[in-house]
Amino acid sequence: GKVVKCTLGETPGGDFQPKIYIGGKGLAWNAGQFKAGLEVSTVTSVTGSFAGGQRIALSGRGFQALNASEIGGEMQVKACGLPCTVLSSTYTSAVCEAPKILTNSARVDLQKKKK
Predict the structure, then answer these.
(1) How far apart are alpha carbons 42 and 60 in whole angstroms?
(2) Ranges of residues in the chain whose predicted pLDDT is under 50
(3) Which residue, among 9, 16, 7, 33, has the nearest Cα to 91 in the 3D structure?
(4) Which of 22, 30, 38, 90 is the most exposed place for a label (fewest CB within 10 A)?
């Protein structure tokens, strides 16, 4: 059999089933799975108010790049287990608005990061 190689650009993190079209032949059968990595290197605004509204900036790689019409789409960020509204996102950074956690059922977990 022949080997088909392709180079992908900036791909958001996740598992994908690629579809490979071979000119004059059609789609390749059983192209296999492709796993793209997601990495968060830094988070700013790690403290804030229980009333929410603070902007949290994430940097790294593998974020889903979104344009204005896609904001609030498939990319999900959580803070304290609650949805953090995504305001902007590129392959290397994302900004979200911290959720309000002043509710009767809110639970706050404080944990020391393990090394």
Answers:
(1) 7
(2) 106-110
(3) 9
(4) 30
